[in-house]
């Protein structure tokens, strides 16, 4: 009763004073419609050092909106990309499944587009060289463009040519003036991280050869909605993308989508293939029209779809908090695995701290001995799970459960269980 009164009060307040949410980053129309309001949260990758544990954190609204005109789901920009990615601690190479995904991608595209020693692959947000290393091994020329110097230096140390810069029209023009023109451009899980979509996409138009190809991979909005993957909403993700919105954006910059693949990565992603609009080398495949039709049938332009999604988000919160309260009262010890950005959205929205989850663990040594933002849950090495013998392990990167659960199968020795909070609470 008390909780519902608070929710009713919050709803009434939002109706009484409608805030100005600014313009859509794709079409410029004023944003009016809420997808889901997750309250306030710190930046999801702003990990806290032990020595800074008593310092104040910045919290920002985590309020996803949808444009009534172009239907792009988006967050407002509260912090610049320069600030968000200044001390970035995400290293792609710590996920074995992601490395396999990258290696398979390189092999597939080299074959499909007949790339050889005379070809150039340019990856945007190339991180620690996780993907370009496989192209370089096959004798194809590579160039990475990565704004976070922390991870770019790792790639450079591997011998992978890397430009430390944010990508956009200016960077593309500068590289083109130096003779850089790409046969294949790769943008994996970066399009959603860009507040200025138009500047970013114009860079591909500039740097891509006439018949060159660019592929974008990003979590699919349709899957996010269908499986209530609200934890993938965080400040580093400015946009939540469908094939339709990406196609609209690319068209404004002289680029045409000619193929699309559905992928299992990150809970369900798309790989979109595009080329210059005037290129006749890559005809549009039937897959494009079919997926556009399925998105429409799934209600991506129906506001009721988003209202239903928001209601399910609250149910997930209730179920997880209830499980943790009952486990605590039963004297059980609960820990977590992983320190992904999505986990921080989940924990902060649900109000979960060390009083419920004693610690989490992560393979990335750069995150170990840090504290999660907001919740201040400590991050330990994975072997700490074996030492502490918890009753249950909450898998925060639930999209990697098939990789993680076999690694932690030893918890069965003492009756330990796995907890998967999304899309529904499962205790396994």
UniProtKB/TrEMBL annotation:
The keyword Lipid biosynthesis does not apply. Signal peptide: none annotated. Residues 264-423 form the C-methyltransferase domain. Keywords: Methyltransferase, Transferase. The keyword Plastid does not apply. Residues 24-85 form the Methyltransferase putative zinc binding domain. SUPFAM superfamilies: S-adenosyl-L-methionine-dependent methyltransferases (SSF53335). GO terms for molecular function: methyltransferase activity. One of its GO terms (biological process) is methylation. This is Methyltransferase domain-containing protein. It comes from Acetobacter fallax.
């Amino acid at each position: 009763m008390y909780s519902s009164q608070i929710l009713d009060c919050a709803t009434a307040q939002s109706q009484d004073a409608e805030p100005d949410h600014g313009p859509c980053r794709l079409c410029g129309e004023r944003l009016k419609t809420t997808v889901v309001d997750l309250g306030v949260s710190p930046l999801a990758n702003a990990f806290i050092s032990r020595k800074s544990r008593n310092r104040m954190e910045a919290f920002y609204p985590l309020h996803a909106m949808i444009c009534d005109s172009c239907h792009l789901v988006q967050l407002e920009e509260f912090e610049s990309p320069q600030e968000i990615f200044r001390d970035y601690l995400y290293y792609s190479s710590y996920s074995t499944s992601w490395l396999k995904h990258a290696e398979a991608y390189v092999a597939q595209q080299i074959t499909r587009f007949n790339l050889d020693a005379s070809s150039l692959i340019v990856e945007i947000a190339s991180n620690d060289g996780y993907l370009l290393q496989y192209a370089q091994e096959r004798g194809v020329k590579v160039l990475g463009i990565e704004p976070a110097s922390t991870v770019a230096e790792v790639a450079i140390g591997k011998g992978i040519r890397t430009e430390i810069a944010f990508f956009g029209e200016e960077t593309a023009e500068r590289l083109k003036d130096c003779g850089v023109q790409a046969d294949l451009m790769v943008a994996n899980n970066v399009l959603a991280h860009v507040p200025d979509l138009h500047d970013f996409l114009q860079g591909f138009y500039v740097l891509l050869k006439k018949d060159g190809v660019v592929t974008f991979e990003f979590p699919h909005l349709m899957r996010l909605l269908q499986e209530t993957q609200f934890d993938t909403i965080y400040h580093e993700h400015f946009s939540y993308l469908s094939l339709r919105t990406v196609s609209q954006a690319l068209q404004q910059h002289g680029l045409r989508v000619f193929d699309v693949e559905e992928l299992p990565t990150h809970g369900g992603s798309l790989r979109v293939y595009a080329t210059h609009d005037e290129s006749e080398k890559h005809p549009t495949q039937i897959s494009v029209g079919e997926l556009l039709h399925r998105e429409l049938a799934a209600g991506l332009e129906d506001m009721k779809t988003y209202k239903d999604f928001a209601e399910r988000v609250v149910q997930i919160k209730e179920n997880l908090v209830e499980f943790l309260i009952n486990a605590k009262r039963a004297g059980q010890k609960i820990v977590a695995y992983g320190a992904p950005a999505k986990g921080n959205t989940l924990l902060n929205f649900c109000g979960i701290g060390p009083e419920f989850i004693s610690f989490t663990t992560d393979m990335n040594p750069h995150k170990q001995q840090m504290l999660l933002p907001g919740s201040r849950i400590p991050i330990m090495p994975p072997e700490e799970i074996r030492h502490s013998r918890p009753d249950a392990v909450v898998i925060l990167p639930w999209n990697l459960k098939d990789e993680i659960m076999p690694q932690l199968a030893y918890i069965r020795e003492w009756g330990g269980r796995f907890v998967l909070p999304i899309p529904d609470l499962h205790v396994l």
